[in-house]
Amino acid sequence: MNTLYYGDCLSVMQNMKMGSVDLVYLDPPFNSNRDYNAIYTDETGRPLPDQIEAFNDLWELSEERQRAIRMMPVLMRDYGVDDDIVEFWKIWMNALRNTQPRLLAYLSYMTERLLPLRSLLKPTGSIYLHCDPTASHYIKVMMDGIFGHANFRNEIYWYYYNKMHDSRKRLFPKATDSILFYVKDHKADFTFNQIKEYRDEPVRQLMRVKKDGKIVNARDADGRLMYQVKTDKTVDNVWRIPALVPASSERLGYPTQKPVKLLERIIEASSNPGDVVFDPFCGCATTIEAAHKLGREWIGIDIAIHAIKRVAKVRLEDRLGLKEGVDFKVEGVPHSLEGAQDLWERDKHHFQKWAIEQIDGFVTSRKTADGGIDGRLYFSLPDVKDLQSMVLEVKGGKNVNVNVVRDLRGVLERDQALMAGLIVMEDLGERKTRNFRQEMGEAGDLNVNGVQYPRMQMLTVPEILAGKRFLTPSVARGKVVTQPMLPLG
To answer: If pLDDT is split at 50, 70 and 90, which confidence band does 338 have?
Structure first.
């Protein structure tokens, strides 16, 4: 069945069947200063202040990332990459470590995910990787090493001629993205359907024929040149497709949303009806919509719960009329305490991310001197320009004691946040809960227009799954919201 997966594609791909995919399209996060991984709802209409910082944290050479880089040669050999390429990787990575550490972090992240993608492709399969000039040349080198230079078909230039440009920059305005097109095996009968475009007006062209091994102009019996009228033309590697403008009916609010026409062209060219199309960074599901319209099966993965639960499902259900459980299924999203506990056991970091995003929070890796801040929940106050925040901490284990509350209270007092929220796996028992509430109560209340909001609050996973949320003030559409829809019990 067509499937949406919530999670890191690296983990999800480990459980997918090898040689099961006909076509891969991926539009991964570029190595830039914007958050391309997730879309976060902000009813105030103001930008979230930590988005840029949170994205940059992803490309830091953390201890975990450096460990992955050290293990990369072993991983590459396990996937059958030539030893010469592995040795080149070592030299290249050592050079980047001191000169461009963030780029190194990004490339190692991408390489980890490109390796299993090749294994998932059928022998007749193809992969299209969407990128921009920031790192496209580095990515192509890695694609050559993993997929083989002989399997490179094209670098496609998507020319979005209608995009607005900033004329203040001292450079030629950027109007193209690159799409790298590789096949699994150029010697196999890989799928490729030549794409034609219809002209606005017919064109009269000279006819050409092959004679004595050469291509020459065709002539009739009297030696006169022969012509033909062409109403179509073969699509080359420069694709003139407009970008989505803000007023486009396709727009879903996703920062890097691509037009359906772009994906339809890729899918038509390198797959046939009934084939499986796979997008490991599916975002707002443009690939899925195009695949469905063209009669293909599909698989999509995204690491953001907002993409899976809101944007992608809205697109599938509202725009395409598909029904979950009948036309597609969603995997990896906990719907019960048992599911949340299973996610905690499998991937503690991803459980933390799920819990924060489930209550509309924003995951951040920023730390304070007195402990970790796992995330923030933003809200606005009347007549206050900047967004305010509730700092969030997630504890999925069973051994949670009142010291956690005291530490979080210390973070609250020293951070610029007005509120703090603690998420725990399940009910702590009457006595412990009473102690927690008492400790939290000592932090006092936040008074907004006469409404009292506890500065420190706690939610359990069952409460979150039941729809309960932290009580925060908000200003939406110019109106002060003083009473939350779902009060805590």
So the answer is: very high
